[in-house]
Amino acid sequence: MGFELLVGFCLGLLILKWVLKILNCWYYERNLGDKKYDLPPGDLGWPFIGNMWSFLRAFKSNNPESFIASFVYRFGNAGLYKAHMFGNPSVIVTTAEACRKVLTDDESFKPGWPSSTKNLIGKKSFVDISDEEHKWLRKLTAAPVNGHEALSVYMKYIEDNVKLALEKWADMGQIEFLTELRKLTFTIIMHIFLSSESEQVMETLEREYTVLNYGVRAMAINIPGFAYYNALKARKKLVAVLQAIVTKRRENWRKNPPTMKKDMMDELMDAKDENGRRLDDEEIIDVLVMYLNAGHESSGHITMWATVLLQKHPDVFKRAKAEQEEIVKKRPSDQKGLTLKEVRQMEYLSKVIDETLRVITFSLTVFREAKKDVRISGYTIPKGWKVLVWFRSVHFDPETYSEPKKFDPSRWDGFTPKAGNFLPFGGGSRLCPGNDLAKLEISIFLHYFLLNYELEHHNPASPVMYLPHTRPKDNCIGRVRRQTF
Predict the structure, then answer these.
(1) Where are the coiled-coil regions (predicted)?
(2) What pLDDT score does 348 carry?
(3) Radius of gyration of the chain (CA)
(4) What is the four-CA torsion angle of 284, 290, 295, 297, rounded to 10 degrees?
(5) At a CB cut-off of 8 Å and minimum separation 6, what does 172 contact?
(6) Where are any strands of DSSP class E within 153-239?
């Protein structure tokens, strides 16, 4: 009798699960009419939580690809799948051509970031502003971040800080390599955007940015103990610190108008559109939060992974080091330090960085929203549905990259991927605005590391975490050692 009760209970649970999923699907598709028959195949999951349990389970395991693999197994290799992600009915896009379409078609798609991201990064930052405002702010911030003149100016500061950091780490013994790199890249981005602030202010900002970042990809659960709750508290502290800086600078400007702009905050405070409108404090702070968060997280993580991968592949290390030695050898005797021209001559190192960006795929997805019903690959994406551009599927496509999980910079020899097949910084009009600065930072660090140092990785078997970004759980504990010649 007990066995029969157990079987009946399990059968009841299966029926309940089936009914709940059917109800959830009906709820989001009930107003679509015949369009629901043109939706991509997929599964909208459970009421309220959608597919987030299976997503989080996959990305907290050692096989994050199992999330999309489950869709492929159940629904075939369709390239587009309906799902319920981050609180919204969504379509996950996994093919290069479809990803390119979503990223470049501004007439059909707009930013569609989850509420958690918008609330944390700021509703007046790039993640949630109109196309016209975005064009203006992007134009305003492009030259001070990625322009040739700006990059040339930043090089000396980046160089000096990289050399000092490597010297310091070599004397420190065991360190968390990723933690130290994040501090370094944060120092650099702080200088570019806020010029000189006190050590205490920098430490506070860096600490709170770390907490904020863990909530950016989390579910918007504002309850103590959840990442989103902690991130919201961190944002309040960040805004308070940045507001104090803005207020102080405005007061100084009133007393002594500056003769020249020295950092990004100056640029933002002085900016005005064709009608004379200037940015208010909230707009300035949200743009700074966005740039400061993105500007050091990606650079720090990719620099760490490039260093680790170089150290794990001695043949790659040897070839990259030889290139850097050749650059130094050809340098005029009176030249001190790197030049932008030399960085652009680092052809093999550039391939090492690109391969690291591909293998690690720092951002697993970006979010868009359909402005209207859109047809892609024979399916309809309904107006108002979110679209997740799934970079991991594109970067690990075996038809484009043989042995896709293998780190092989030589695969880039004579190879230029087709549009949509390589998207480390996104694409289209919303391409990451700091991509050139990030690659410059990584190149300068690896130049000096390859020439003079090596990494002794103490725990190479450390589990890897994939949220919010790919990193070793122990933050890459090891020692930076001076090379012995």
Answers:
(1) none
(2) 98
(3) 24
(4) 150
(5) 480
(6) 175-176
Q: Which of 266, 293, 259, 246 is nearest to 195 (CA)?
A: 266
**264-314 pLDDT tens trace:** 888 888 877 778 888 889 988 888 888 777 767 889 999 999 999 999 999
Token pair recorded at residue 422 = 């390589």
Tokens of 375: 């047809």
On average, the pLDDT of the chain sits at 88
Q: Using an 8 Å Cβ cutoff, are 229 and 223 in contact?
A: yes
* 344's tokens: 């652009």
Q: What is the rounded CA–CA span in Å between residue 280 and residue 368?
A: 26
Rounded distance between C-alpha atoms, residue 27 and residue 278, angstroms: 44
Q: Which residues sit opposite 456 in a β-bridge? A: 479
Domain regions of the chain by residue span: 22-482
In contact, 42 and 25? CB cutoff 8 Å: no
Tokens describing residue 286:
């949200």
Residue 54's Cβ-side half-sphere holds a number of Cα atoms within 13 Å equal to 16
Q: What angle do CA 419, 320, 441 make, to 5 degrees?
A: 65
Euclidean distance between the first and the last CA atom of the chain, given in angstroms as a whole number: 78
